[in-house]
UniProtKB/TrEMBL annotation:
InterPro entries: MFS (IPR011701), MFS_dom (IPR020846), MFS_trans_sf (IPR036259), Sugar_transporter_CS (IPR005829). Residues 1-468 form the Major facilitator superfamily (MFS) profile domain. It comes from Pseudolabrys taiwanensis. One of its GO terms (molecular function) is transmembrane transporter activity. This is MFS transporter. SUPFAM superfamilies: MFS general substrate transporter. Pfam families: MFS_1. It is a multi-pass membrane protein.
Amino acid sequence: MLPMFLAVVDQTIIATALPAIAAATGELERTSWVVVSYLIAATIAAPVYGRLGDSFGRQRMMYVALTIFIVASLLCAASNTILLLTLARILQGFGGGGLMTLSQALIGEAIPPRERARYQGYIATVAVCANSFGPVAGGYLTEHFGWQSIFLVNVPIGILALGLTMRLPAARGERLAWRADPGGVVLFTIFVATALLSLEQFQRADMQALPIGGLLLAVSIIAIVLLVRQEGRTPSPLIPLNLLKQSAIWHSDALAACHGAALVALITFLPVYLQVVRGVSPSETGLLLVPLTVGIGTGSLVTGRLVSRTGRTTVFPIFGLVLVTANLLVIALWANEFGTIGFAGLMLWNGVFMGTVMGVVQVTVQSAAGAMRLGEAAASVQFSRSIGAAFGTAVVGTLLFAYLSLKNPEAARVFKMMVEGGHVALAPEQRAIVRADIADAFRAAFLLIAGFTACGFFLALTNPMRRI
């Protein structure tokens, strides 16, 4: 679980260091590439590590992923330009994508199917703690030791993870034969890179960015069509279409995408809502997010134990997503009627029942795939969740800006300043002028997020794998 912690923290710890990085390099307009490059590389790496782990051993590939991650962290700390830092982050993403996928696969390899759900609860708790810990640690380290320290801290933790991985028992059983699929890797890379970059362009909601985003989206569509044809012909595909054709697996992967879209969009834009609409300070915003993260960890642990005890799977996300959708509707329509304690209660409710999903998804996919294909199964879930998270965040951001642009262009301008520059970029008098319009825009955004969870409910309801 330590490699999983490293990978998740590395995605969040950098957020609070970006202003310092921009100031040190003098390249503010390119700072977003430091985040986007890691996400693209990690998403591409996930299925590659899944396939390599099934063929050469997941423990052995974990050594490779950790080594790449440690070396890349040192290179990130040594970078003095955005270009060098972006290249180092790409390498770090190639390591981080393996940490995420192989952690899941190693648990599936070592733990019996009924017990996997309990351990998935532990993993979800680790991920939530890492998401909460990352920004706090990033701010402290950057302020006291410089932005390079957020990368250097990975080195001793990564070495410790290497030592613990070496203590794992050797895996037994057959392995899949390895055959390279260079065409699949190239097309998959083009698809992921252009799809995520197009979403990043659309999220800007800038008329100048729309043609670029449209062109990138067209390239990604062509790439995915060619990828499906390529993977259908090759004897050893990077993306196992025969695995994804299984009803239980594609239902679960689609559910992971919906869950990622809802959760990451909520976590991304909720602080903006709290500070602008409700007038909450940044420190109070952090406290109001604690019930959400604690709730997710609690819900994951409880769901994992219930699945291990009963063998039932889909009943928990079905029940949980109904309540999450209802909760989001309440937030969309009546959030301003709740005080601080009441809103914290809504966040706790949302977190607990959001926690009923991902552990069940991983267990279902691993059970349906079988022991020999655990790596591919874990990679498919990770890839689906990453794409869903990127898509959901981009669509919600675009909706917010489009709504404001149509209703109040001045509010749209101020909102864009706030998204790009944070709380400091929004002056008090501007906040008073646009608060009502932004509140209306957020109602639409919360309704859209509720739509994501409603789709997830339908996918859980129709998943044929009810027990493990």
